[in-house]
Design a protein that fits this description.
Layout (H helix, E strand, L loop, with lengths): L2 E6 L5 H12 L2 E4 L9 H4 L4 H21 L4 E4 L2 H11 L4 H10 L6 E6 L2 H10 L6 H17 L3 E5 L4 H14 L1
Parallel strand pairs: 1-3, 1-4, 2-3, 4-5
Length: 178
């Protein structure tokens, strides 16, 4: 397996989990868009959602092809799912429409791990970061993730509300099965 993406709500523990996997299991970590693309993000976010989606696709594809060159397993901190979900929510698209948009994107990581965390824990973590919790978006996002997990064999849901060692063992067990 060469490319794994970790997805989930803000404060679901993606970065913490990736740091742990890199430190103890020799994975290579990568952002879902390359460093050269990052200066374009503020500009892109001012554009219409359809244009934003196309601009972000360039960044995601570039990161994907960079990862393919690696000889080690690369773990992305998110992939294009997050972008599509955020933009579909802004456009008031249905969950099904969002899932279909995601399905139409032409590259897929080998494995996508979606971290699930109960709403109360996410709320608490966001408060600790002085960030707002949007319950409607949280429910929308998690509905999209759930539908995607039913649609694709390479998507797994992992409860990340438990101890990081427990969660890591569950993920490694699922990676080996894939």
């Amino acid at each position: 397996m060469s490319i794994i993406a970790i997805e989930g709500s803000n404060c679901s523990g993606k970065s913490t989990l990736i740091d742990y996997l890199v430190k103890y299991y020799n994975f290579k970590a990568s952002k879902s868009v390359p460093e050269w693309f990052r200066p374009y993000i503020p500009f892109a976010r001012e554009l219409q959602p359809q244009i934003q989606r196309k601009i972000y696709e360039i960044g995601h594809i570039a990161a994907y092809y960079d990862a393919l060159k690696e000889k080690s397993c690369t773990i992305f901190d998110r992939c294009y799912f997050s972008t599509y979900i955020r933009l579909a929510y802004q456009e008031s698209k249905t969950v099904n429409e969002c899932v279909e948009q995601i399905a139409s994107f032409h590259y897929k990581p080998d494995l996508i791990i979606i971290l699930t965390v109960p709403k109360e824990i996410i709320e608490q973590r966001l408060v600790e970061r002085n960030e707002q919790f949007n319950q409607d978006f949280f429910e929308y996002e998690n509905s999209v993730y759930l539908q995607l997990s039913f649609k694709y064999d390479n998507i797994i849901l992992v409860d990340n509300s438990k101890d990081i060692k427990f969660c890591t063992k569950e993920i490694l067990r699922k990676i080996k099965r894939k």
